[in-house]
Records
---
Amino acid sequence: MVSIKSKNLLVLLIEIDENDPQKIISQLEERLSKKFFSKNAEIPFLIQVKEGVEEGVIDKVVEYLTQRGFSYLLKPAEKKGTKPSEVPFNFENLKGSNVLIVNKNLRSGQIIEHAGDVLILGSVNPGAEVRATGNVIVLGELKGIAWAGYLGNKDAVIVALKMQPQQLRIANLFAPVEGSIKDKERPQVAKVVYNKETNTYELEVEPLV
């Protein structure tokens, strides 16, 4: 079975819980008409994977969608056990109950805290805060506070389609928000990189694509 969720057609969130790629693709073709593909090219998508789904299945679904003009918002890390600077995004596929999906905008004073990844299908307004032991993904505007890997996970990332935060933090590292985001209209990713010259870890923000 495959289900599709979206927030004002901004991003497609595709949930997959079986290992038959042809069946999944057939369901996608039923739900996403040819007219939809032609009118909404380059819409980004995320895949939420249930336990037991094989990696090869996901690869075929990703290939199908990218061939039709959609763009994969986040790619998994190429390999595990490497320093953060050695992979473009150290982000594993969203899996099962480790993901908290919040289908609303967060207002000032609201705090979301979760032991796992947090996916916000909306915006985080000033005064709101998201804390996750894993990754924080905001499919809207991030204008509040985001803290990923708050138990010390430097491999976590923070992603937002529009990054205008009050504060960014990964593990115990802060990002210099002022002046660090050059193109606020493009999706951005905050991640930890290893500086070989200083032998230290630093938090950097750069365009996602």
---
Amino acid sequence: MKLAVFDFDSTLMDGETIDFLARELGFEAEVAAITHEAMEGRLDFFASLVKRVALLKGLPKSKVDEICMSLPLVNGAVECVNGLKSRGYKVVCFSGGFRNATAHAANILGLDADFSNTLHHEDGILTGKVGGEMMFGSSKGDMLLRLQDLLGVSVENTVAVGDGANDLSMFAHAGTRIAFCAKPILKEAASHSIDERDLTHVLDIVDSL
């Protein structure tokens, strides 16, 4: 059994989901600045997530779903996932973002599973609160360990692909660690780097193992 785990925002998807959502309320620049600090590793991920989601208070859930169903995938994402699956990999997405986006993308891409967070809403309006499986900087690593144990996958047969500091915890448990157009802090922990926004290069790396 082999396992490939991808980050979602700026890895499978071309951009940050929360930036697209914040644009609707006029907070895109403020949210993007906080996201940047978190992905560079200069701000605790949990604190940054709570702070950014609070700015989404008042956004209709229907608008969230509409935006999340039209998010752009990174070039080569479909081909990459299909190629990995044809090579015997289970392909999973871990996201510090939101289920509204990852569930839709998982369906399009044919992912085996997606793990992310849930935006709380009341009467169809976001409350500015969030909860879920990927709330902390350590969450991706913790979930990867659980999946490896459940599926019987070794570290050597695990590929992790990401771009930011909150991907460090899953890199710690993957034999092949691919930094995709990544921040310097993640590149330092990577075994391979891709600097072109084309996920088919992941297949080149896997085939060279």
---
Amino acid sequence: MEYTVKRSDRKTLALHVTDEAALVARAPAGMPPHVIEDFIRQKNDWITAHIAAKAAQAAAKSSFCLDYGSSVLFRGKECAIAPSADGRAGFDGERFFLPPGLDSDTIIRNIRHIYIQLAKILLSEKTAKAAEKMSLSPPPVRISSAKTCWGSCGGKGISYSWRLVLADDGAINYVVVHELAHIIHRNHGSGFWREVGAVVPDYKLQTQKLRKLQKRLEAERWD
């Protein structure tokens, strides 16, 4: 089995399958090659399953396309893409509309641009409302293109991935409360989760929904 070894000052050996379905062994600097090889042989079933999953994901992503009549998510609902009569692009609450005659890649770019605009409005509003409920001053909101992090809280405010607006309102609200709770608790200790649970009691369900959405997004080509 082909693999790449990346050595560092880490203390343990770990395996990683990249998005390109390649195997990487992350090993301590002084670990002998035969130890790495033995470990990989022991993990053969795990490796085979993960490589197959990554290969399927890559194939789905490469074939991802959008056209007029396709549907995309917004706030957990499937919304159709339709050509506009006046050549404008936007979202009317039920459907995304774009100038007619665009190819798939251009449609994807346009829908992504609309998502970013919608995210700034929606997530700013939700952050202000949740902050009031939690007796906090609403922090500045920034929209990012993060792929693996729904949100983050720092000294300059809260950053949300625009992809969050594809989730339903329950999951969106959870992420907003999660990041606001970090203003009070900078870690994920028991006090933090009590703060989150006081506003979003079913936060564990919301995290499950976000994991499911993440799997879908991994097979879609947004940038």
